[in-house]
Write a structure and sequence with these properties.
CATH topology of one domain: Ku70, Chain: A, Domain 2
Strand content: 15-25%
Structural class: alpha+beta
Number of strands: 8
CATH architecture of one domain: Beta Barrel
Radius of gyration: 27 Å
Low-confidence stretches: 218-254, 257-270
Number of helices: 6
Oligomer: single chain
């Protein structure tokens, strides 16, 4: 078997297989099957929006009015100069007091985006928002009848037992960690140890699922010493809220007056 090496993809005519030089490739849009309208680089360049370091807050809305399904990428805002520092402090304090956020437009990477600006301590955070046509409307099934009180009581008990404070450092990308471990193992030429994959039994009855979740909780009578607890890896399988879901994977759906001017400098992604 020959050693692995990078490959190079070359543009070609799919009908003849003939290679096409890159300077012969143009951008286009297929408006009908097999019918294209093409664009020159100058025509596309003329559409570019000029990037600006100034964010013009067009309106202020209550923070709860902005659905989180529209959130895209967060950035920290840093002021450009002393005047901007004072503007951010004053506007941020006023927004925090009113419980509002600012809505604005910003050009990033040649694309105009709607953004949300909110106060965060002595600074601000900017979150780019998805457009309305990028978020699908939910299609939840309407449930009939009252909720079973026994199942509701068990679900409440589970939630009360697992109440905590959110800490992003406790969540790791376990796939990325396993991939890195696999890379290091192969680089060293060590044998690959297959990982055991546990497949949970399918749960059909919701009451049975809730009871199984309660059984999985660690009884209070069993106490583990602090030393052992610190050394033991977290068991993420026990105590989870088990819910019945239909089997099989499905195709992932696409996600779900006067302007106030604030001068900003370099945005760093959170």
């Amino acid at each position: 078997m020959s050693p692995a090496r990078r490959i190079r993809l070359r543009p070609h005519d799919p009908s003849t297989g003939a290679e096409v030089e890159r300077d012969e490739v143009v951008r286009g849009y297929e408006y009908e099957h097999g019918q294209y309208v093409t664009f020159t680089p100058d025509e596309l360049k003329a559409l570019d929006l000029e990037s600006s370091k100034v964010i013009e807050l067009e309106m202020f809305v209550p923070r709860g009015d902005v659905d989180s399904v529209y959130f895209n990428s967060p950035y920290y805002l840093y002021p450009d100069g002393q005047r901007a520092v004072e503007a951010i402090r004053v506007i941020g304090a006023a927004m925090a007091e009113a419980g509002t956020v600012g809505i604005a437009r910003l050009t990033m990477n040649r694309r105009e985006r709607m953004v949300m600006v909110e106060a965060r301590g002595s600074g601000m955070v900017l979150i780019t928002l998805r457009a309305a046509d990028e978020v699908r409307a939910p299609r939840f099934i309407e449930a009939d009848g009252a909720i079973d009180t026994d199942m509701l009581a068990i679900a409440r008990t589970l939630i009360e037992r697992r109440i905590g404070k959110f800490n992003s450092t406790t969540f790791r990308d376990r796939y990325q960690e396993a991939l890195q471990e696999l890379i290091e193992t192969k680089v060293r030429g060590l044998p690959i140890k297959p990982r055991a994959v546990a497949t949970p039994a399918p749960v059909i009855d919701l009451m049975a699922a809730l009871k199984r979740s309660l059984v999985g909780e660690t009884p209070a009578a069993k106490v583990v010493t602090a030393k052992k607890r610190a050394m033991a890896p977290p068991n993420r399988r026990q105590g989870a809220l088990l819910l019945p879901v239909p089997g099989g994977r499905k195709k992932k759906e696409e996600p779900a007056t006067e302007t106030t001017t604030v001068a900003t400098r370099g945005r760093r992604k959170v």
